[in-house]
């Protein structure tokens, strides 16, 4: 099955490139138009989050984006090299997204993450909350190397 890999410099204007490639991959895979729009928004949000984390913590390391079509659907992975602990591995996504939108303070995230990106206008907690509202199938895992945000969309059944 086709896979596209993008390595982008952590610059905000490259987010548009990721969205354009994502839309092309979604249309090629046969994703319905309403879901193509959802993918465009979600990919833009995930990439903006990764770019902001890279700008603050790994400015010389490219943001990695994988778009993969398989029997399960279309999967998009955005891999950043931000600080570990955003979120802890095994965190229930509903609990994560709920806490990210409510109140202020740390909400379970490591010290320093909430203020690192004030200049870029991207808060990693809020970005994950937005993604949780946009995409039904989302998985966020964190390792020492960074965070992987995996988004999935089902593809329509194709008749031969």
Main sheet, how many strands, which sense, barrel? 5 strands, antiparallel
Approximate strand percentage: 15-25%
What is the mean predicted local confidence, pLDDT?
76
Bin the helical content.
25-40%
CATH superfamily: Histidine kinase-like ATPase, C-terminal domain
Give the class-level CATH name: Alpha Beta
Number of E-type strands: 5
Instruction: Note the run of SSEs as H and E.
Output: EHHEEHHEE
- Net shape: globular
The N- to C-terminal Cα distance equals 16 Å
Rg, Cα atoms, Å: 15 Å
Task: Flag low-confidence runs.
Answer: 87-120
What fold name goes in the CATH topology slot? Heat Shock Protein 90
Number of domains: 1
Provide the spatial order of strands within the biggest beta sheet: 1-2-3-5-4
């Amino acid at each position: 099955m086709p896979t596209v890999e993008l390595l982008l410099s952590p610059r905000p204007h490259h987010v548009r490139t990721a969205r354009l490639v994502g839309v092309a991959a979604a249309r090629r895979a046969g994703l319905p138009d309403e879901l193509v729009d959802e993918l465009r928004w979600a990919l833009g949000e995930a990439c903006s989050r990764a770019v902001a984390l890279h700008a603050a913590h790994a400015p010389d390391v490219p943001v990695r984006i994988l778009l993969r079509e398989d029997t399960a659907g279309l999967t998009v992975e955005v891999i950043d090299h931000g600080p570990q602990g955003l979120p802890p591995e095994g965190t229930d996504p509903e609990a994560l997204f709920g806490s990210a939108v409510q109140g202020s303070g740390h909400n379970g995230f490591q010290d320093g993450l909430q203020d690192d990106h004030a200049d870029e206008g991207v808060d990693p907690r809020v970005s994950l909350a937005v993604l949780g509202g946009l995409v039904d199938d989302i998985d966020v895992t964190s390792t020492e190397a960074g965070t992987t945000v995996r988004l999935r969309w089902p593809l329509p059944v194709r008749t031969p």
